[in-house]
Design goal:
Largest sheet: none
Order of helices and strands: HHHHH
Structural class: mainly alpha
Number of strands: 0
Shape: globular
Number of helices: 5
Number of domains: 1
Helix content: 55-70%
Length: 75
Amino acid sequence: MKEKDSIQKRFGKHLRKLRLEKKITGAELARRTFIDKPHIARLEAGGTNPTLTTLLKIAEALDIPLEELFKGFRP
């Protein structure tokens, strides 16, 4: 379980980095994805596992292809 948590935390940090590179606030990402802001914060903190639907919404909101969401991410 510890390893899984570690992967979630690393992905969360990666997601936050991508969002900041696009100069988008957490609130704006929430608005664009129709996902509530606390859920976005939990994703970035590594506190929850995103579904495929969530990942697709985030990629679309960041204006990147889904595979780009994982580029540079090391589990």
